[in-house]
Structure formats: C-alpha cells, structure tokens
C-alpha cells in the first residue's frame, strides 16, 4: 500500500520527529510505502499535494495541516476521490463533520500551554513569590499552535491561584532559537525584569537561556519553560538551565496516524478521534524522556 | 548594387521569425516527456494520460501564474515586484473578512456577514490595486529602486495581514465566494488574465510604452512618454493581479490565513524569467511566462508521480530550474555581440 | 603572449597587418564577404563606406571581438588567431570603438589604466601613481581633463578624448580608430590629428574610419573602400577626388552635399527669451521662423545641447520664457513639447535615443503612438508598419527587415531610425542635435535634403552641429555659444569659419 | 582649426566630494535619535546610552552583515545572489556535523566526534565557496541570468540542508566551535570581513575589475578583463562569506538547523541597497552596506525598546526601509541628466 503524507513543514524540529516516527514505523511494516511531501507552510501547496496524491492513486492520505481552518476542502477532495484521510497533530476545523473514512490523531494543544504555564506558576509559588512577572515568547503569529499556547498562558494566569503573575512582555520570535536569543537580549537591554520566560516552544526557550547566560544572569534566578521536549531541550534541562517542558509524543502520533490510515484503507473502522496525551517534563522525570523524542 | 543609380535599400523580406517562446515550449515538452518515460520505467504508468494530473499540474500553479502575469509586466519595465506574495496574504485576509457567511460562529465583522459576493471581490481587487499604486508612486516620485519600494511593501503588507485579525484565520466563507476557487476556475482565471494582458502588451499603446520604458527609460521620456504615470499603471495592474490571486487563494482554501502567498513572489519571478523575460527590462512575453509557470507545475506533479523523496525534490527542483534556462539559452544563443 | 603562430611561415613582412579573405555572417546579414586589407607601418589607412558597409565589423575582428567565419589575420608576417580583446591588446592592437565604451562610475584615470593599474609593493593599487601617470599621458597628448573625476560627469566629447587617450596609452603597434571624431568639434579634431601625426611618425599603423571627406584628405595616406560587406579598392588619398571616392562608396553620384534652398521665411514660430538653467547656461535669446534653419555652433561643452534639452522640456528652465506662435508656453516635459509640435533628435543615440532591445519598427513608431495611430488604446499596426516601411526606405536604412533589433544595426543606421522616429511626428519645430553624427555621405545628403524639404514646408528648424561646413551650409542664421552664453548670432551672408571660431572661443 | 594648444574641457574644479555614505549615515543617526527621543517620551529611558543595547543592535545583524559584504560585491558586478540564506543553512548543517563533541548522545558521524575545530571551519568555508563557484560558473559559462542561477542554488542548497540529516538538528557542538559565536565575536568577524573587503574593493585590482564589470561589461571586456574568471571569483567570495555566516550562526545558536538563514538573502540585499549599492551595478561600497546593516539592527532593537506591538512592527519596518532610502535619495539628488 502507498500512503501519501503531506507535512506542514520539514524544517520544524517537532514535526521532524513526528515524520521520522512515522517513517520508521512504516519501515517495520511489510509492503507499506510512504510518499512524504513538504508543504512548506503553504495551504495551497498542501491542497495541491493532496490532488497530486489523488492523481497518483495512493491508498490513503495523512495530513499535518498547515492551516487547520482549511481542512474542509481537503476532506472534500479526498472524500470525492474515495481515498481515506487521516489528520495528524493539528486539529481540523471540521472535526465534528468529518466524512466517512477520515480520522484525526493528535494531542490536545490546550494541554500543552496549560501544563507548561501551570508548572511555571507552581515553581513561582514554591519560590515564595507573591508578585511575579513573566515574558511570553510566541511562535509564528499565523500558526494555530502559537496562538493556542499563548492563549493557554492567559487562561492559566486568569485562574485565582496564578493571578499573582503578570505578563510584562509578549512578543514573537517565530519559533527560532536565534530570534529568541535576540529578543531576550533586547528585553534585557530595555531594562525589563522578569521572573520567568514562558516560550511557545523549546527552541525559543533555549535561545532565551543563551541570552540570559550571555548577560550574566544566574539560571536559578529565572524559570524558563518550553514545549516539545526536544533532545536539545532535554540536554538543557539536564544542565539545569531549562525548568519546564512538555512532552508531545511525536513518534506516537506518527505511528498512530499511519495505523489509522492503513486500517481505513483496508476498509476497517477507526475511531474518529485518537488522542495521545501531552506529558509534563521536569528535572524530576527527565530520565524517562531522554531516550524518547 | 553594381550599377543602378536609383537603387534603394534592398527589398525587405518580412521574416516571420519563430517566436522565442518556442524554445522554452520545447523545454517544457522535454521535461514532460522525460517524466512520461521515467513513469513507464519506474511506476509503470503514463504521466500525461491522466486527466486529473493534467488539471492539477496547472491548477497548483495558477495562483502563482496570475501573479506572474503582473510581475512580467513590471519586469518588462525594468523593475521588480517583491511584494506580490505578501499582497496575496493581505488581500486574502481583508477580502475574506467581507465574505463570511451568516452562520459562521466568529466572524470578523459580525454586522457584515452574508454580503453579496461582489463586495469581497471588489475589496480584494481594490486593496491589491492600492498596494500597487503605492509601489508605483514611490518608484515614480521618490525615485527609489523598485527593489526597495516593493521590499518595503512586502514587509508591511505581511505585517498588515498578521495584524488584521491578530493572526487568526478568517473562515466560514460564503459558497458564492468559494466558487471562484472551485474546480478548475483558478485555471480559467489564470489563462483569462494571461490572454488579456498578452493582448494588452502586444497590441495596445499601454504595451508599447511598457516595453519602451524598459528598453530605455531616457529615450522613452524624450519621446514624450510620461514615465511616472505609466509606471504607476503597471504596478497598479501587478497589484490588482496579486489581489486577484489573493481572492483565488482564499476561495480555494475556503479560508484566509496571514501566511498565504509566502515566497510566491519568487516563484512568479522565476516563472517569468524561465519564460524568457529579461530582468534588464524591455524584453518578455506573457506566453513565455505561462509556459514558465506550467514548467513549475509540471515539476511538482512529476516529482510526486515518480515518488521522489521530498528531500531530493528541492535539490532536483533547483537544478531543473537552472537546466531549463540553460537549455533555453543554448537554443536561443545567437552569435554574441560584445 | 605575443603573436600566436599558426604556421611555420617566416616573418618577412612588407605589411604590419594583413587581413585576407575575411568573411563574417550574422543571422540574416552577411556583414563581410571575402574582404582583404593591408596596413603598413607608419601610415594612416582610412576605411570608407556607407553605413552598414562592414567597417566596424572588420575592425572588431582585428581587435579580437569577433572571430571571423573564415579568412586570416597576419600580424608582422605571422598569422595569428585572436580569440579575445585581451589577445589583441597583448599583440599590440588597440581600438577606439565607435560607441563609447567607458565605465561611467569610475574615474578617468581608472578607466584608462584598467587592468594595468600601477601597484605598490604590497599589491595595492597605487592611486597617486595612477593619477600621476594619467597627468603625464594627458600632458603628452595635450588634453585637459581631471584624472580624478568620474567619467559620468564628462561631456560626450570629453569622454571621446578619454577613449583616445586610453587607446594611445597601450603603446600598441596597430591603432584602430572607429569614427573617433563623430562627437568632436573642429578644435579637438585638429588636436587629435596632431596626436595621430605624432604616432605615425613613431611607426605605428593606424586604421581610421570616418564619414568626413575632408578628414580623409587631411590625415589619411591611403584608403580602402567597402560597399555592402565587399571590398571595392585601395588608393592613395592623393590620387583621387572626393567625387570619385563617393562614387566608389555609394555606387552612384551624389550631386550636392548641402542642398540649401532659399525658401520664403514666415512668422516667428519659436521665440526664446532670457532662457537660463541654473549653473549651466543663461541669457539665451533667439527667434526661429517658419522655414528658417537656425544653426547653433560652439565648442564642446559650450552648452548647446543643454539649451536644446531645456527648450524640449527634458530639463525645464529655471528662468526665462519660451513662446510658440507668440503664446508663452510652459514646457515642463517632453510630452508637453511634443504636444506643441516639437521634435528633438538627441545627440547621444545610445543613451537617449535607441531602444536597443526592440526592433526597428518599435523604435520608429515610439513618438507617434501618442496620437494618430491608436484606436481605443489599440495600436493600428498595419498603418504604422506602412509608414515606418516608407520612412525607412526614404532614409535608406540598411536592414533585412523592420523586425531587426536596433542593437544589430550599424551606428549610422541607428541614427537614421531615430531621425525617422521624429519625422513621423510631422513636427512644426524640429530640433536636431548633431543629426548626421556617424552618417555616411549618401545618407547625409539625404538627411540634408529632408531637412530642407521640411523647411520649405514651413517647419522651423534648430540644428546643432559640430561640423562647421554643415552648419555653414545649411543654416539661415547661426547662433554661436561659449561657456553657456550666446556670443553672437550671424546671418548666412556674413558667417564664415573664422568668425564662428572667433565667437566660439571668446 | 586655428590653434592647437587650446584648452578643451571647461576649467576644472577640484571638487573633493563628500563620500556618498555620509548621507545614509545621517539617516542612521536620524533613526537612532528618533528612538532616543521617543524613548525619553514614552519609556523614560535613553535608547543609546546602554552598552548592552548597542552590542545587540549589531550582534543580531552580524550574520546578515557578513552575507551582505559578499552580496554587495555581487551586486556591484551587476548580479544578484539569492542563494546566500540557503547556503547559510546548508553550511551550518554540514559543518556542525563535523563539530559535534564526543559526549553528545546521537552524533551524525559517531566516528567523527571531537574533531579539532579547524576541520568544521574549513569544511564550512569550503562548502560555501563551492556553492559560490557553482553559481559563478553557471553565470559565466552558460550565460544564464544570475537571478536564475542563484535561485536554483537557493532551492537546491535548502534541499541539501533538509536532506542532510532528514531535518534533524545537529547539536552538541564542541565549545571550541561554539566560541566563534560567543559574545561579540560575530560582531568582530563581521567588521573584520567588512574591513578586508572594503580594502579589496577600493585598493586592489580585484576591486577595480569588480566595479568595471558592473559599470560596463562591454568596456571591461574590450579592456582585456576576463569577465568569466572574475565573476567566478566574486561569486566564490560571496559563497565563502555565506559559509562563514553559516558557521557563525551555528556557533551562536550552538546547534545547526535546516531552516537557518531563511530570508537572510533578502535582508542582506536590503542592507546593501539601503547602503547605496545600485542594483544596476557599478556602484556601491562596503561602508554603506555596514551602515545599512546596522540600520536594520537598530530598527529591531528600537521596536522592542519602545514596546511596539509585534503586529505593528512589521508594518512599521517596511515603512522605515522605504523612508530610509527615500531620505537618502533626497539628500543625494543631483541634477538629473536625461
Ligand atoms: N551583432 C550583429 N548582429 C547582426 N547584424 C549585425 C551585427 N553587427 C553588425 N551587423 C550588421 O552587419 C553590417 C555591417 O555593420 P557594421 O557595424 O560593420 O557597419 P559599419 O560599416 O561600421 O557602418 P557605420 O558606418 O554605420 O558604423 C550591418 O548590416 C549590420 O546591421
Ligand atoms: N545635468 C547637468 N548638470 C550639470 N552640468 C551639466 C549637465 N549637463 C551638462 N552639463 C555640463 O554643461 C556643459 C555643457 O554641456 P552640453 O552637452 O550642453 O555642451 P555641448 O555644447 O552640446 O557640447 P557637446 O558637444 O559635448 O554636446 C558641459 O560642461 C557639461 O558637462
Ligand atoms: Mg561602424
Ligand atoms: Mg552637444
């Protein structure tokens, strides 16, 4: 069987783990061939890839949506061609009305930012703060996960137990370590003080750590949180620099999506929604994750 | 010219030269046949004998194609337009916000839902045109290089796209609006636009002036052409077409997103240059641009068809772009004049 | 890398340079067909021929720019094969090109010594030495140009002098000059001739291309004539008369070179009063009447072209008035000027004239697209083709078809296309800036005839020319300029060379 | 023809011209002072009196600056280099894979860890240079437009970067390697490179040829310059500098990622053009490019300093780029000769 896969982006660390998880898993299955395409963050390109898959007659399609609002026409295309479709990682807007032979495998983004922020809040409380300010580093503004994770931060801070925390700055560093480092340096040079950095992903968090270190700030004075639990992030946590990250089981999502796609292609029925939970990673349980992502 | 005293210049033969696009057309045919051949060898299928694939080959590049038609005209004047991709994103966002249907839960303007379809269309074209007029005016009246004027617009328009809804996509568009992105409509729009501007460039004064300005702006000015006014026109048209492309993109995806159209300007410029438009200005044709666009589409479809690994696709794509132009150059090579 | 031997022939050279049976074909044109030429040491060998006869092409072969399709080049008795301009330069062949070939944003000194800059011990360019040796060169050649100024700020004539100095600086054995005087006035021409005589006496062989007959008799020892890419003959310049040469060149008689006709002079059409452009020229006052030809003479850089540009709205005046038919008008751009029935043939055809990448017709029709030849914005192509065809026949543009790119035309033919562009507009006021620059005798007579005809039809003509015989022959009145001021206006009857030179140098 | 020793040109005025960079420097000063002023008004702080900020202002653009030094030279020859951003990504990936420390868990080449630091450095520079040589050779020998040759390289090099480790980042770099990205080293490297090529352009034959080719390739050719060979050199240098930029980027981030350097080429070209380099070729200076680069850095720092909302930043950035060049143009405006 041939399965066409359209990934939102290839140069995203997290999605790379997901993609590799899927491909490694496909390697263990007999007669399953993956055709993986890179949509390079372009909705139209992704739609075209689906149409190209259909023209090539694949048996099933897996989509990691660039824009989760643009999934309705994609579902339509696949349904018209009678080819099963599985969305992975990013939740399609038409989840409730997915046509037959379509499914969704992911973790719930609401959890990621929430787990991260709650842990940061807990650490600040533990440190005995009664007033605290944090800076928020956002991913690319046009990206759904960036918006959701930022929203999660706001939602957590709105709860009574965390309301002592104020957001002093909120800026985008486009998921990038470099831009993250520059952003934090610019903040520091503007004399902005903060007790914690809450980043939408690990890369920006690492950038923040590098900038803080370069400015001679002791890493136990600042709490830094990210999302993804990438190798670099876990190494930073092991070094005592990163305090919080959230493990998203990328490989699990990848293999789960492929299983669903193959099952649909063979005419079996599959749950419409398959949830793979986010897990909080702290120095306490770090060891459990070092061999994962 | 031996004897006769009254012999004028030798009689003219109006040589109908082969159009220069012919050579790039041959490159396209060559690429397609290569895929066909490789298809039979490696996939055991025909590449071209597939209605669906022939459609998607053009469909997937029709938005880039619409932009490229405008960009070609800009390049013929000796300019460049880097803003078109961002203008696609900006117009998609703004126009879509006037095209939301009444039953969508979170419209941008709750009071303005379910509007007749011509409103978002007019809004989209107007915004694109406005961006173009700003580009053109900056270039004409402040004499800054087109590269900088349109780079500024590129950055600003992308900013507007993100700012407009704070990055939220605009969804729940009316079926009437989505219709212009449905099925092969984008292809029809692309080819229609190409035809119109092919005629405009070849048979109207607008076209003659466009070429003249690109070939030698000083000479054009001395010959009485109002360069400033004309350039604004050309950039306005390019902006309008980028706006149209934004409408088609949003309609096709049934949503508008701030990141739409990223890097399309490069694809559009590449399509024009592959099609024989010279970045030095004064030379180029819409037919060539259409072929250049289709070459890009053919490549994408061919790669998927041959199941080429995505990692290799880009590497190969870069090489094919270069090879296509080299082949074209080689075929056209005239004896070089120093 | 001195002369690359092609065979083991023994150098035994009566000639410095010899070309045998050269042939060069361009798509659609045979530019040279079985052409031979011999150049002796210490002589000036002139090449004559109509526009497009193939003179420049032959020279470009010798200078290593074109590789001939067949034929041989022999230098000092050794057959050589030149594959690049560098080959030619290293073999002692330098060339002044018909079109200016300088780097506009670099200094005069940098332009002259490019690739041969003096270096310091550390391998850096020694700018002081560079400027010093340029000064020396200029002193030797008696040229007064600042070595440090950017070439882009120089007038066309000064640039031409820089080109000449550059070519001389190579100290080559063979020096090719392709119409070096087309942008020069008499003073510089005299000056150039002094340089040439000096070089000749040093044993250098010079090939000199010109369309000016008087130059031929003054400087050339012998000359060869070409016609339509074929070699016609070589003669000593003392052996023949001017009419004989013309006959050899064009294959027919040319009766009159400056066919001035006395035509009834009408009302004042253009009246210029106290015209000035800040820092460039001032106090320009003159009238031109219908049917009158006003010549403007002066030395290089005297501001003649600037006056013309200002009248035509290219660089609008900073003060003064321009009136047309008695009405003061505000000529703020060429568009306005054209609307008032003006036409302007500029002096630099490459910079402000030709659309090189477009074909002849596109070039010729450019100025008339504004009015008669469009309907609903669409160009009436057939009508235009017809008039352009007619015009190019009338001007004897040598080309296989109107679809030819102007880039591929010989210099003189490019000029004809530009003249055609403006004649198509049926102007009331015609401004010509060096209209016959680089044009062969036949075509020149043709253009003069046309200008006379236009004057007879009541067109007011302003003609700027650095060729005194032309100004004297054609004008009803002559305005002379010096350093941005009009130093006098002479009537046809009273004007002669001495008076003009006197006013021009005042 | 009366006298011979008549002076020919108008009497010469020895104008010592102010360097053209002065005007763009004034623009930079103007921008900085505006931020200073706005700082006192809205933030109650000085913008400039802050060591840390002055550092980051240049530090954050030093990678772009290194590229821009090479791109400036390419543009002076009348070309363009779109590939530099991708070459940054490609060299970062490949060089970093030779710079992994022995104690990193999953190195790319387990057998090649803990190598001496010069190996990744040489590898990086060599790969960049190779990319440049390919660009230059394509342009010189196949006569395709630089835009296309470097566009092809842009696409291919990015493909190589992604393919090299299938998108995995390369981390765990040795401290010696990371050192070149540490502290203000990137700034030192940037300014050092700028100085070297400033001298090369102004005081060596290499520089004279570069300007000559851009100003008038025909004139350069008839003067005996081997244009082909020289262009390859220029593109090779640009490639080498992009390679160097890749090394610095990886060292600074202490990791290499396939997406590094995306869009840097545009920033670099913008820096050069803002600094007065003409895309038409023949004109431009490294000093101008350095100032142009710093303008970009000042803007970024200034926005954060003034706490301008992220959504507005891009919109304003686009406008400032345009305004900077307009201001520069206005100051430099000479009487235009048609
Ligand atoms: N690169 C080219 N491509 C095509 N045709 C060319 C090219 N160069 C020259 N020709 C043609 O070759 C012929 C000879 O041109 P050439 O420039 O040698 O003439 P010329 O004798 O120098 O004329 P002029 O006196 O006008 O300078 C002309 O018909 C010209 O159109
Ligand atoms: N735009 C300009 N700004 C400043 N000076 C100029 C400008 N254009 C021309 N000049 C200078 O004005 C003087 C007159 O130039 P112009 O070209 O009018 O002279 P000309 O008599 O026609 O001589 P030529 O034979 O060189 O054309 C020259 O010294 C020239 O350098
Ligand atoms: Mg000639
Ligand atoms: Mg003049």
From TrEMBL, chains B, D:
<dbReference type="InterPro" id="IPR001851">
    <property type="entry name" value="ABC_transp_permease"/>
</dbReference>
<feature type="transmembrane region" description="Helical">
    <location>
        <begin position="286"/>
        <end position="305"/>
    </location>
</feature>
<keyword id="KW-1133">Transmembrane helix</keyword>
<feature type="transmembrane region" description="Helical">
    <location>
        <begin position="231"/>
        <end position="250"/>
    </location>
</feature>
<dbReference type="Pfam" id="PF02653">
    <property type="entry name" value="BPD_transp_2"/>
</dbReference>
<protein>
    <submittedName>
        <fullName>ABC transporter</fullName>
    </submittedName>
</protein>
<keyword id="KW-0812">Transmembrane</keyword>
<feature type="transmembrane region" description="Helical">
    <location>
        <begin position="22"/>
        <end position="42"/>
    </location>
</feature>
<feature type="transmembrane region" description="Helical">
    <location>
        <begin position="177"/>
        <end position="201"/>
    </location>
</feature>
<keyword id="KW-0472">Membrane</keyword>
<feature type="transmembrane region" description="Helical">
    <location>
        <begin position="108"/>
        <end position="134"/>
    </location>
</feature>
<dbReference type="GO" id="GO:0005886">
    <property type="term" value="C:plasma membrane"/>
</dbReference>
<feature type="transmembrane region" description="Helical">
    <location>
        <begin position="54"/>
        <end position="75"/>
    </location>
</feature>
<keyword id="KW-1003">Cell membrane</keyword>
<feature type="transmembrane region" description="Helical">
    <location>
        <begin position="82"/>
        <end position="102"/>
    </location>
</feature>
<feature type="transmembrane region" description="Helical">
    <location>
        <begin position="146"/>
        <end position="165"/>
    </location>
</feature>
<dbReference type="GO" id="GO:0022857">
    <property type="term" value="F:transmembrane transporter activity"/>
</dbReference>
UniProtKB/TrEMBL annotation, chain C:
<keyword id="KW-0677">Repeat</keyword>
<dbReference type="InterPro" id="IPR050107">
    <property type="entry name" value="ABC_carbohydrate_import_ATPase"/>
</dbReference>
<dbReference type="InterPro" id="IPR027417">
    <property type="entry name" value="P-loop_NTPase"/>
</dbReference>
<dbReference type="Pfam" id="PF00005">
    <property type="entry name" value="ABC_tran"/>
</dbReference>
<feature type="domain" description="ABC transporter">
    <location>
        <begin position="17"/>
        <end position="253"/>
    </location>
</feature>
<keyword id="KW-0472">Membrane</keyword>
<keyword id="KW-0762">Sugar transport</keyword>
<comment type="function">
    <text>Part of an ABC transporter complex involved in carbohydrate import. Could be involved in ribose, galactose and/or methyl galactoside import. Responsible for energy coupling to the transport system.</text>
</comment>
<keyword id="KW-1278">Translocase</keyword>
<dbReference type="InterPro" id="IPR017871">
    <property type="entry name" value="ABC_transporter-like_CS"/>
</dbReference>
<keyword id="KW-0997">Cell inner membrane</keyword>
<keyword id="KW-0547">Nucleotide-binding</keyword>
<keyword id="KW-0067">ATP-binding</keyword>
<protein>
    <recommendedName>
        <fullName>Ribose/galactose/methyl galactoside import ATP-binding protein</fullName>
        <ecNumber>7.5.2.11</ecNumber>
    </recommendedName>
</protein>
<feature type="domain" description="ABC transporter">
    <location>
        <begin position="263"/>
        <end position="502"/>
    </location>
</feature>
<comment type="similarity">
    <text>Belongs to the ABC transporter superfamily.</text>
</comment>
<dbReference type="InterPro" id="IPR003439">
    <property type="entry name" value="ABC_transporter-like_ATP-bd"/>
</dbReference>
<keyword id="KW-1003">Cell membrane</keyword>
<keyword id="KW-0813">Transport</keyword>
<dbReference type="InterPro" id="IPR003593">
    <property type="entry name" value="AAA+_ATPase"/>
</dbReference>
<dbReference type="GO" id="GO:0005524">
    <property type="term" value="F:ATP binding"/>
</dbReference>
């Amino acid at each position: 069987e041939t399965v066409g896969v359209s990934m939102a982006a290839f140069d995203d660390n997290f999605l790379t783990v997901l993609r590799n998880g899927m491909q490694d898993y496909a390697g263990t299955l007999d007669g399953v061939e993956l055709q993986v395409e890179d949509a390079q963050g372009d909705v139209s390109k992704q739609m075209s890839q689906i149409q190209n898959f259909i023209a090539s007659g694949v048996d099933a399609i897996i989509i990691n949506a660039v824009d989760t609002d643009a999934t309705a026409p994609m579902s339509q295309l696949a349904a018209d061609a009678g080819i099963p479709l599985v969305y992975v990682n990013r939740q399609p807007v038409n989840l409730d009305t997915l046509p037959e032979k379509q499914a969704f495998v992911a973790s719930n983004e609401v959890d990621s930012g929430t787990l991260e922020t709650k842990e940061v809040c807990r650490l600040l409380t533990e440190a005995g703060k009664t007033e605290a300010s944090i800076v928020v580093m956002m991913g690319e503004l046009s990206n759904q996960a960036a918006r959701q994770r930022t929203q999660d931060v706001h939602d957590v801070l709105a709860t009574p137990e965390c309301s002592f925390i104020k957001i002093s700055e909120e800026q985008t560093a486009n998921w990038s370590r470099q831009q993250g480092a520059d952003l934090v340096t610019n903040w520091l040079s503007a004399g902005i003080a903060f007790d914690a950095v809450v980043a939408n992903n690990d890369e920006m968090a690492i950038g923040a750590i590098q900038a803080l270190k370069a400015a001679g700030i002791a890493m136990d004075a600042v709490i830094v949180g990210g999302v993804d639990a990438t190798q670099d992030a876990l190494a930073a946590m092991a070094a005592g620099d990163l305090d919080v990250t959230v493990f998203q089981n990328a490989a699990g999502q990848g293999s789960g999506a492929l299983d669903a796609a193959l099952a649909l292609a063979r005419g079996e029925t599959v749950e419409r929604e398959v949830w793979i939970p986010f897990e909080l990673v702290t120095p306490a349980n770090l060891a459990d994750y070092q061999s994962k992502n | 010219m031996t004897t006769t005293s009254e012999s004028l210049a030798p009689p003219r033969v109006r040589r109908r030269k082969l159009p220069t696009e012919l050579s790039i057309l041959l490159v396209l045919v060559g690429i397609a046949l290569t895929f066909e051949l490789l298809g039979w060898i490696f996939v055991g299928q025909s590449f071209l004998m597939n209605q669906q694939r022939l459609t998607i080959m053009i469909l997937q590049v029709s938005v880039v194609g619409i932009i490229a038609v405008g960009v070609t005209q800009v390049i013929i004047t000796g300019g460049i337009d880097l803003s078109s991709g961002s203008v696609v994103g900006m117009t998609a966002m703004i126009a879509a916000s006037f095209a939301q249907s009444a039953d969508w839960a979170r419209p941008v303007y709750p009071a303005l839902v379910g509007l007749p379809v011509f409103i978002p269309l007019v809004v989209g074209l107007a915004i694109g045109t406005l961006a173009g007029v700003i580009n053109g005016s900056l270039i004409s009246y402040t004499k800054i290089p087109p590269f900088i004027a349109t780079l500024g617009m590129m950055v600003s328009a992308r900013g507007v796209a993100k700012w407009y809804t704070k990055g939220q996509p605009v969804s729940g568009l009316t079926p009437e609006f989505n219709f212009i992105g449905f099925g092969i409509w984008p292809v029809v729009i692309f080819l229609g636009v190409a035809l119109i501007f092919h005629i405009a460039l070849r048979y109207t004064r607008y076209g003659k002036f466009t070429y003249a300005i690109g070939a030698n702006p000083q000479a054009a000015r001395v010959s009485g052409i109002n360069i400033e006014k004309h350039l604004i026109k050309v950039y306005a048209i390019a902006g309008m077409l980028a706006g149209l492309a934004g409408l088609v993109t949003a309609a096709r995806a049934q949503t508008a997103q701030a990141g739409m159209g990223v890097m399309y300007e490069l694809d559009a410029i590449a399509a024009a240059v592959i099609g024989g438009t010279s970045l030095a200005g004064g030379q180029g044709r819409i037919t060539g641009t259409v072929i250049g666009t289709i070459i890009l589409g053919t490549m994408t479809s061919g790669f998927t068809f041959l199941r080429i690994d995505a990692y290799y696709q880009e590497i190969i794509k870069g090489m094919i772009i270069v090879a296509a132009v080299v082949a074209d150059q080689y075929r056209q090579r005239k004896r070089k004049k120093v | 890398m001195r002369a690359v031997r092609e065979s083991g022939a023994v150098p035994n050279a009566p000639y410095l340079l010899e070309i045998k049976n050269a042939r060069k074909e361009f798509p659609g044109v045979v530019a040279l067909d079985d052409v031979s030429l011999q150049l002796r040491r210490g002589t000036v060998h002139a090449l004559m021929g109509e526009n497009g006869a193939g003179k420049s092409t032959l020279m470009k072969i010798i200078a290593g720019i074109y590789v001939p399709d067949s034929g041989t080049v022999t230098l000092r008795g050794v057959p050589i094969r030149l594959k690049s301009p560098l080959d030619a330069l290293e073999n002692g062949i330098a060339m002044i090109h018909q079109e200016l070939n300088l780097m506009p944003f670099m200094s005069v000194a940098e332009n002259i010594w490019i690739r041969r800059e003096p270096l310091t011990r550390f391998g850096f360019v020694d700018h002081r030495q560079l400027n010093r040796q340029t000064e020396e060169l200029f002193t030797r050649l008696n040229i007064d140009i600042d070595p440090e100024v950017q070439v882009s700020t120089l007038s066309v004539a000064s640039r031409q002098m820089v080109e000449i100095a550059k070519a001389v600086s190579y100290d080559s054995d063979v020096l090719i000059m392709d119409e070096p005087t087309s942008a020069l006035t008499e003073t510089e021409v005299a000056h150039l001739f002094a340089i040439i005589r000096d070089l000749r006496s040093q044993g250098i062989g010079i090939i000199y291309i010109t369309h000016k007959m008087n130059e031929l008799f003054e400087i050339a020892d012998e000359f060869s004539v070409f016609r339509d890419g074929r070699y016609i003959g070589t003669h000593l310049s003392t052996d023949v008369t001017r009419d004989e040469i013309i006959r050899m060149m064009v294959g027919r008689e040319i009766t009159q070179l400056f066919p001035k006709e006395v035509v009834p002079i009408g009302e004042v059409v253009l009246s210029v009063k106290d015209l000035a452009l800040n820092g460039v020229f001032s106090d320009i006052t003159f009238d031109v009447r219908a049917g009158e030809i006003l010549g403007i003479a002066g030395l290089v850089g005297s501001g003649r072209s600037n006056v013309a540009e200002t009248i035509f709205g290219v660089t609008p005046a900073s003060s003064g008035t321009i009136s047309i038919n008695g009405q003061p008008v505000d000529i703020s751009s060429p568009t306005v000027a054209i609307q008032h029935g003006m036409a302007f043939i500029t002096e630099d055809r490459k910079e402000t004239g030709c659309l090189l990448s477009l074909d002849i017709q596109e070039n010729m029709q450019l100025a008339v697209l504004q009015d008669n030849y469009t309907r609903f914005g669409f160009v009436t192509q057939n009508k235009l083709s017809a008039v352009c065809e007619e015009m190019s026949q009338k001007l004897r543009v040598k080309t296989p078809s109107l679809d030819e790119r102007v880039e591929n035309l010989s210099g003189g033919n490019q000029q004809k296309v530009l003249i055609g562009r403006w004649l198509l507009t049926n102007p009331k006021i015609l401004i010509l800036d060096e209209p016959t620059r680089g044009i062969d005798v036949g075509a020149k007579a043709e253009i003069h005839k046309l200008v006379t005809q236009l004057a007879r039809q009541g067109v007011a003509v302003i003609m700027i020319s650095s060729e005194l015989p032309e100004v004297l022959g054609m004008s009803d009145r002559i305005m002379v300029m010096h350093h941005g001021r009009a130093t006098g206006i002479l009537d046809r009857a009273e004007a002669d060379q001495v008076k003009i030179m006197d006013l021009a140098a005042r």
